[in-house]
Design a protein that fits this description.
The chain is α/β, with parallel strands linked by helices and 243 residues long. It has 9 helices and 10 strands.
Amino acid sequence: MIHVILWKWKGRNPTIKYESVHVNAMVRQLSRRCSLPLRILCITDDAKGVKCETFPLWPDLSHINNVSGQHLPSCYRRLKIFDTTTQEALHIPAGDRIVSFDLDAVLTNAVDSLWVRQERFLAWRVPGTRHKTVYNGSMFMFTAGDFQEIWSGFDPVKSPTQSLVAGYMGSDQAYLSHKLVTKPWASGWDQGDGVLSFVRDVTKAKTPPLSGRIVFFAGRRKPWHPDVLKEHPWINDCVGAAA
């Protein structure tokens, strides 16, 4: 079984809001684009209107700012998904696969080939500022019961700064990159697997989005923004209308 974890909470940036409609749009996309056995679970601070299974968001690490910039999103709380006790509370058995997945994405084709891979840890691989390859936190996958040390080894005072000094940017993704990106048993997905960046691949490199499998909209422009939808009608075709 693959447990797809979606996240929705009220962030510090008032210009970027994640609503129940965005969760429900992702649930529709997953049902259309994945034929593997899935359980979809949204961890959220507001479950109203969400049309999938939900679990209350924990307060752990919510107070830590993104050391790459206080104006940037802080997602350290997502690290608790590596905690085995938390996995038990979420009814995720040891040995099952967990995929953490952001809402600001459009699934353009089937994702089965991405999620049948069995490496211990996989994440979206992108070029870094100081490193050739880093992990982006928009999508990562691992086996439940593994990697307890990612959670128990995180020091709220020291770990963020250590990751930044090592040349990794962001919050949870910096920590995951620092700890895992050089491991020989860790791997990832990139453009060659059909995992695309809206900014880097679609708008700058002019890669046809429908040639990929997932387009992630990291940054200020989101797939539900009216101006983005007007410029890129393929988004509505992929997301589909609400039932």
